[in-house]
Design brief:
Elements: H1 2-21, E1 38-44, H2 48-62, E2 65-71, H3 73-82, E3 91-94, H4 98-104, E4 108-109, E5 123-124, E6 127-132, E7 135-140, E8 161-162, H5 170-195, H6 210-215, E9 220-224, H7 225-235, E10 239-242, E11 252-254, E12 258-263, H8 269-279, H9 282-285, H10 288-292, E13 295-296, H11 306-315, E14 319-321, H12 325-343
Parallel strand pairs: 1-2, 1-3, 8-9, 11-14
Antiparallel strand pairs: 3-12, 4-12, 5-6, 6-12, 6-13, 7-9, 7-10
Length: 344
């Protein structure tokens, strides 16, 4: 009888565990309130500092709590896809072209976010930019700062350089796109073949490369201005932000915003809409730079805080390229396949 009771208890624990984790593997537990007092956000990493203050303020204002699942830009969209028959997320925040991919695959629903008319960046019927940002690279302070893309081919970076994987991470995809923009598609493939001699290997998350560069495990990695500037300020990370120049000596980057959309079949769509409206409100947008070194998506919000000035100083003199994300998406599978073949 004692053995039977132990077996039954173990079975109940196992059943409870499965009920929490089986829905697409996210581990998002039920709230016990029908989901109406909780909004679930699937988000690319990088905005944690801003989320903390804004989500707390949103909860105080509305009584609705916010829980997040944070992963790489491609992975959060993959989670939505896996859960399509049993949606768990209310709001998606990720980078282009993954937000366009989510839209194309029917993973988002149309919603006109209040204030979207003031957003001049990436937006569509079912998504809108919430924080502007830019691709960059970081270098450990002991390594100095490489000046050009050719500098990254130096043998001193062998086993000490890593960039997040195109097709999986938004920042990694941006690296490939920028190389295509500067060198053409054949030239970009030739370059990544050479760079592979120094590359540690794939990484699905750009954020995970920051501490490795800071500790000196890596000397160079890709990143983005918002996330890297916040890491330097808040975590005292020992790296610097830089933009490698092309053959013409010009420093070029591309706009790489965080973009949000309302998930199709969202369990708490009303709460998701309220959260999206709040995040794009002037009050919330005014705090993007102060809290997280982001750039407001709204053209009528002009911060003057020290963090915003830091971002402007870091990007001064750097040409910003605005990709045609629809064209990027149409070529993405082929470009990623060609990249994978090129690096072996």
């Amino acid at each position: 009888m004692k053995a039977l009771k132990t077996l039954l208890a173990a079975t109940l624990v196992l059943t409870a565990t499965i009920s929490v984790t089986a829905c697409g593997g996210t581990g998002v537990a039920a709230t016990g309130d029908g989901g109406k007092k909780t909004v679930t956000v699937y988000t690319a990493d990088g905005l944690g500092d801003w989320y903390k203050t804004r989500f707390d303020a949103f909860t105080q204002k509305t009584g609705i709590k916010v829980q997040t699942v944070e992963a790489g830009s491609g992975e959060v969209v993959s989670r939505l896809q896996k859960e399509k028959s049993n949606p768990q997320a209310d709001v998606l925040v990720t980078l282009p072209p993954f937000i366009q991919k989510a839209s194309q695959d029917g993973l988002l629903q149309k919603y006109a976010v209040a204030g979207a008319d003031h957003v001049k960046g990436v937006k569509g019927d079912d998504y809108v930019t919430v924080v502007d940002n830019y691709l960059c690279f970081i270098a450990n302070q002991k390594a100095g700062t490489p000046k050009t893309f050719d500098d990254l081919l130096d043998a001193k970076f062998k086993g000490k350089l890593q960039y997040s994987t195109p097709g999986q991470a938004g920042d990694g995809t941006a690296v490939l796109l920028l190389l295509q923009h500067l060198l053409g598609k054949p030239g970009a493939l030739d370059y990544v073949k050479k760079l592979e001699a120094n590359n540690v290997g794939p990484s699905a998350s750009t954020g995970k490369l920051q501490p490795k560069v800071s500790k000196g495990e890596l000397l160079v990695a890709n990143g983005d201005v918002q996330m890297n500037a916040a890491s330097i300020a808040n975590d005292k990370s020992a790296f610097s932000i830089f933009f490698p120049a092309g053959a013409d000596g010009k420093q070029t980057t591309l706009a790489l915003p965080y973009v949000m959309g309302l998930a199709a079949g969202a369990p708490n769509a009303d709460g998701g809409k309220q959260l999206m409206d709040y995040l794009l409100s002037t009050d919330a947008q005014q705090t993007v730079s102060k809290d997280a070194f982001g750039v407001p998506a709204r053209d009528d919000v002009k911060p003057t805080d020290a963090n915003f000035q830091t971002v402007e100083k870091v990007t001064a003199g750097v040409e910003v390229w605005q990709p045609d994300w629809s064209a990027v998406l149409s070529d993405l599978d082929g470009d990623v396949a060609a990249y994978t073949k090129a690096v072996g």
